[in-house]
Amino acid sequence: MRLVARPTQVRIVAAIGRLTVDHEIDPTTPVDDRHATPAVVYTGQKHIHPDSYEPLTTYGEDLYLGEDGGIYLAGDLELHHEGGLEEELERPLTPPPPERLPGGEAGYVTRALHALKYAEWIIHTDHAHAEGEIDAATRDRVQRRAREHAQSAGVELLVEAVIAATKL
Amino acid sequence: MVETTTDEDGNERVTTRPYTGGIEPTLPAEAVAQLTPAGQADRALKYASWIMASIEENARGQLTTQALERVHARAHEHAKREGVHETLERILASLGA
């Protein structure tokens, strides 16, 4: 999965290097010693950096620190398998859709919170796009993911109801 | 809220009392005035999330009922201040809350 041009990778690797230093991660330590099951590994020419222990995310998408100090959505990162500069990621960076949430009264609040989260992804990206913070492709990607996740969790109707409630 | 006073002899007295000075705005007034419709919806969603999350935490025993009520009151106050209270109410109704 190649998502950015090679020159962009250089910039990203530099940012990851800085993250590695900032978080006092020893880049020479085998990844498996730091994390039992590294989900995703960013690889560069000098450093190997496992995906965050608890990744910072927004809209369900990982973030990375840019060379300019800004924080960006990682949807356009080029990622590789651990240790393989040429080996490309086989699965998406973003987390898989959630399991279907339990029904019934007991799971009501959990379902509502998930619905709010996905509605927020959709509405917030509309807002962010209107403000020029993200481009249309990013907005569309996030909104598509929000609806996929909502459907997987079984809260798609709730999400649409929440969105409709904001537009009256 | 903690208030510290010092008497003539230099002895300090610390008094703790509930904060009654109103809410701290989470968004500057000028930003509130410039909110787009999507931005307003976003703010209302934020406060709906406060309310629903606090209900969940209360049900799990992680939040006292007093704290729950405080969070709810604050969420509604913020929403009113930002002019998104009606939207917040509609969102909560859409969730059956």
Your description of this structure?
The complex is a heterodimer of chains A (168) and B (97). Chain A is globular. In chain A, a hairpin with a 4-residue loop joins β1 (41-43) and β2 (48-50). In chain A, strands 3-4-5 form a three-stranded antiparallel β-sheet, with helices on one face. Chain A has five helices and five strands, in the order ααβββββααα. Chain A has helices at 6-22, 31-34, 108-130, 136-153, 156-166; strands at residues 41-43, 48-50, 57-58, 61-65, 71-73. Chain A has two domains: 6-76, no CATH class; 108-166, no CATH class. Chain A is mainly alpha-helical. With 97 residues, chain B is mostly helical. Chain B has one domain (27-94). Chain B is built from four helices and two strands. Chain B has a two-stranded antiparallel ribbon. In chain B, a hairpin with a 5-residue loop joins β1 and β2. In chain B, α2 packs antiparallel against α3 (65-81) and α2 crosses α4. The radius of gyration of chain B is 18 Å and the shape is flat. Chain B starts with a strand and ends with a helix. In chain B, 25% of the residues are buried. The A-B interface holds A 108-110, 112-113, 115-117, 119-120, 123-124, 126-127, 130-131, 158, 161-162, 164-168 and B 36-42, 44-46, 48-49, 52-53, 55-56, 59, 87, 90-91, 93-97.
